[in-house]
Design goal:
Length: 379
């Protein structure tokens, strides 16, 4: 098999030079399956290898996946030179760097396990909690369009949540014994007049505030007992927030604002920027990547705040009045982004004063005086 002459390899994710692979099955059974292959693949690029049966396509892919040691030549994927890897490095490369779908993928599935459990198998032993594994596997199945084949797990479960505030010498019960749940891939809207308690409720659900009474479990974590740095790390990783009055850092560009979310979480600059671009692409704002935060319209700022909330693909996205002060078209754009986030597996919880917003919701609640009641849709 011989592949095209490569372009210059600057910044290439995958770089193959004069790759040769020989299968030695004993005399005289030597098979030259791949010889003199040059290939470059950039990050974000999709490349198809097209050739008749028996020309070495699978062999080449197996070498790139780290399953077959190259007989000759040079193969680099990201920072890994495949020819010189020690067994531990090779193991890490196979587990963390490359995903491989075999020609007969069903041979890798456990017949006695559900689809949801099968997807979790490669995550075992990699430091994920059971709840994180389940949530991630469910999101992946949903993204593949077969989310219904797994069980839809609840991402948020609130039971009898109450919150009192004391202000000016009087007691206000902002949230009154609220019980509800939001499942993966579900968009739930809470509709309430100003002062009904929606922000107070969302603040508790998203971990910014704690209930005075009641239970709250988010992505398998008990939010009433989770504390300190474990709580911070969990919230950073699993909950995306679009606050009622989103604020971008005005002196940073749009892409820097979005990348900042990941850099704070410890991601390397380049990776953070790449993810920021993908997130901005998804909401159609890539063209504004180099604008500063204060050079955007209100609706664009709201969209960037959404990109910031979605860039880590959170299990739960909370959006407080995401369409307030937007004209009809801009509001529809924001709602379409929220719907797409839910369709890709994220649990979305939004608060609004506008019952029209429930048009994109799977379920809706009316909040009045701190209490919540489910309403049948259409509203
Ligand atoms: N930190 C606080 N201290 C005292 N009272 C508060 C506090 N936060 C909220 N409240 C009170 O709780 C009630 C609910 O407030 P909340 O902000 O949740 O309303 P909301 O439904 O979000 O309204 P809006 O639609 O205007 O945003 C109000 O009476 C408010 O004054
Ligand atoms: Mg509010």
């Amino acid at each position: 098999m011989t592949v095209r002459e490569p372009a210059p390899a600057d910044g290439m994710l995958l770089e193959v030079r004069r790759l040769t692979h020989v299968y030695r099955n004993g005399e005289p059974g030597e098979v030259l399956a791949v010889h003199d292959v040059d290939l470059d693949v950039a990050s974000g690029e999709a490349v198809a290898l097209i050739a008749p049966s028996g020309r070495g396509k699978t062999t080449l892919l197996r070498v790139l996946a780290g399953l077959e040691a190259p007989s000759g030549g040079h193969v680099r994927v990201a920072a890994y030179e495949l020819a010189g890897l020690k067994p531990r490095e090779l193991d890490e490369y196979r587990r963390r760097v490359v995903g491989y779908v075999r020609q007969q993928p069903e041979s890798g599935l456990w017949p006695h396990l559900s689809a949801l459990r099968n997807v979790q198998v490669p995550m075992l032993g990699d430091g994920w909690t059971a709840a994180e594994r389940t949530a991630r596997a469910q999101r992946l199945l949903t993204a593949m369009g077969i989310g219904g084949r797994g069980e839809m797990a609840d991402v948020l479960t609130a039971g009898g949540v109450s919150r009192w505030f004391e202000a000016g010498g009087s007691h206000v019960q902002a949230v009154q014994s609220v019980s509800f749940r939001v499942a993966e891939a579900e968009l739930v809207a809470v509709v309430g007049r100003s002062g009904a308690g929606t922000t107070a409720l969302l603040s508790i659900c998203g971990g910014l505030d704690r209930p005075d009474q009641g239970s709250l479990v988010v992505a398998g974590h008990d939010m009433t007992s989770l504390a300190g740095s474990a709580r911070d790390a969990f919230l950073q990783r699993s909950v995306g927030w679009v606050p009622q009055r989103p604020r971008l850092l005005p002196l940073l560009t749009v892409e820097e604002n979005v990348a900042m979310v990941l850099r704070i979480g410890g991601a390397p600059d380049e990776e953070a920027l790449r993810a920021a671009h993908a997130s901005l692409d998804a909401i159609g704002l890539r063209g504004r990547a180099h604008h500063r935060g204060d050079e955007l319209s209100t609706s664009q700022q709201r969209q960037v705040a959404l990109a910031c909330a979605l860039v880590r693909a959170p299990a739960l996205l909370i959006a407080d009045q995401p369409t307030a002060h937007l004209d009809f078209d801009a509001a529809q754009g924001v709602l379409a982004i929220l719907r797409a986030a839910a369709d890709s597996g994220t649990a979305v919880l939004l608060a609004t004063r506008d019952p029209g917003v429930t048009g994109v919701a799977d379920r809706a609640f009316l909040m009045e005086g701190g209490a919540l009641a489910e309403r049948r849709l259409p509203w």
